[in-house]
Design brief:
Function: Binds amino acids.
CATH superfamily of the largest domain: ACT domain
Number of helices: 14
InterPro entries: ACR1-12 (IPR040217), ACT-like_dom_sf (IPR045865), ACT_dom (IPR002912)
Structural class: alpha+beta
Helix content: 25-40%
Number of domains: 3
CATH architecture of the largest domain: 2-Layer Sandwich
Keywords: Repeat
Strand order of the largest sheet: 1-2-4-3-11-12-10-9
GO molecular function: amino acid binding
Organism: Macleaya cordata
Length: about 450
């Protein structure tokens, strides 16, 4: 008991000595703002730092990540969504405060699951709401049926995100009771909500795997969606409608001399890409010891030195393939095909039920959705395809807009994140050689040149 108490006190001393430090520098790089983070190393703390940056809608263009003993040092090259450096001193000060506060709060938790509980609830503003977690088989009109049930049961949808991948759907919906204006506390009503939503998700084809969970706890929405789809094993299912897309290139190698497994990722760059990868590695119980992230044009190249939380590298071919599958799935989940429709209108009871019913009646399937409300306004984004997952013709889109309101529903159709082009063919043609032969040279060179790690020689 005495020895255990000494260890506990030593752990507390280490945490106090290694108070997180954040430095934001605009002088070093012409095209990006540098965010330097130093902190005591704990499993999941890298994810916390990346999560803060992505939640602030910052784009991470480059990153150098290293840990040495009990200490980790990260350098992130970030821009705003328009590709500009951060110049507003109030924004810079706010970023520093948020990162330090987040990392300090993380230091008091030992469990890696603490990242998605109380500390994110306040920042996301979801206190006083009831969280609904839904997973099941995707099908035309499913979201319409879900919102219809919630409207019928007098539940107001405040925030929601929905992802689909490989024929599966995961959604996290935050609701409040229409009458009380706060979270639902009636146990009978909660049971009724669970039962009816579970029946909707089951449909005729998903008797076993459809799941509905009601929770008063608030988590980090996007991390929880990754966890839900991972638990649903979407990565093992046959890809749906990927004839026009190119999957991310993921390779896993051994570096036996140092006891690392090296993960290389090559794909189109996009916002929150690093978060999606680090989130998945963390939840799979891997620790990132060193990493480098680089973007050239619209291509992202990321390399990670990982071990299990027990300090061992990947040990079998089956495990190697599982890591590859899971990372590919994590990258693809956010890369929805389809036309982007943005709904901005005065919020009202049953609005989402009516809008998604119009989608269903016109043969539109919602591949991804982001629902939010600000004051009395509904600000919703839908990515829609036809029933088979193909692009929707403009005539159908205009008919839907006329029914919902041309001024309320606008079209914004960005190019597909994984649309195949000549640059893809060039960059992936030699992946079996160029990526495999790198053996982590990029990360070792960059980290050593920056002085973040000692020489490996």
């Amino acid at each position: 008991m005495e020895w255990s108490a000494c260890l506990d006190e030593y752990e507390k001393l280490v945490i106090r000595m290694n108070t997180p430090r954040v430095v934001i520098d605009n002088a070093v790089c012409k095209s990006a703002t540098l965010v330097k983070v130093d902190s005591a190393r704990k499993h999941g703390i890298l994810l916390e730092a990346v999560q803060v940056l992505t939640d602030l809608n910052l784009c991470i263009k480059k990153a150098y990540i290293s840990s040495d003993g009990r200490w980790f040092m990260d350098v992130f090259h970030v821009t705003d969504q328009n590709g500009n450096k951060l110049t507003d001193e109030s924004v810079i000060s706010y970023i520093e405060q948020v990162i330090i506060k987040t990392l300090e709060s993380h230091s008091s938790f030992i469990s890696n699951f603490s990242l998605c509980t109380n500390n994110s609830a306040k920042s996301n503003g979801f206190n006083g709401l009831t969280a609904l977690e839904l997973t099941g088989t995707d099908r035309l009109g499913l979201l319409s049926e879900v919102f219809a049930v919630l409207s019928d049961l007098q539940c107001d949808v405040v925030e929601s995100k929905l992802w689909t991948h490989n024929g599966r759907i995961a959604s996290l919906i935050y609701v409040k009771d229409v009458d009380s204006g706060s979270q639902i506390e009636d146990s009978q009503k909660i049971s009724k909500i669970e039962g009816r939503l579970r029946n909707v998700l089951k449909g005729d084809n998903d008797i076993r795997s459809a799941k509905t969970t009601v929770s008063m706890a608030v988590t980090h929405t996007e991390r929880r969606l990754h966890q839900m789809m991972f638990a649903d094993r979407d990565y093992e299912r046959k890809p749906i409608n990927q004839t026009s897309t190119v999957s991310p290139i993921v390779t896993v190698q051994d570096w036996a001399e140092r006891g690392y497994s090296i993960v290389n990722v090559q794909c189109k760059d996009r916002p929150k890409l690093l978060f999606d990868i680090v989130c998945t590695l963390t939840d799979m119980q891997y620790v990132v010891f060193h990493a480098t992230v680089d973007t050239t044009g619209n291509q992202a190249h990321q390399e990670f030195y990982i071990r299990h939380t027990d300090g061992t590298p990947i040990s079998s071919e089956a495990e190697r393939q599982r890591v590859i599958q899971c990372l590919q799935a994590a990258i693809e989940r956010r890369a929805s095909e389809g036309v982007r429709l943005e709904l901005c209108t005065v919020d009202r009871q049953g609005l989402l039920s009516d809008v998604t019913r119009t989608f269903r009646e016109n043969g539109l399937n919602v591949a991804r959705a982001e629902i939010s409300t600000t004051d009395d306004m509904a600000l919703n984004i839908f990515y829609v395809t036809d029933a088979a997952g193909n692009p929707v013709d403009s005539k159908t889109i205009e008919e839907v807009r006329e029914r919902i309101g041309l001024s309320n529903l606008r079209v914004k159709d960005p190019p597909s994140i994984y649309e195949k082009d000549s640059r893809d063919e060039t960059s992936t043609a030699g992946v079996g050689g160029a990526v495999l032969l790198s053996l982590g040279s990029l990360v070792r060179r960059n980290l050593y040149n920056l002085g973040l790690i000692r020489s490996y020689s």
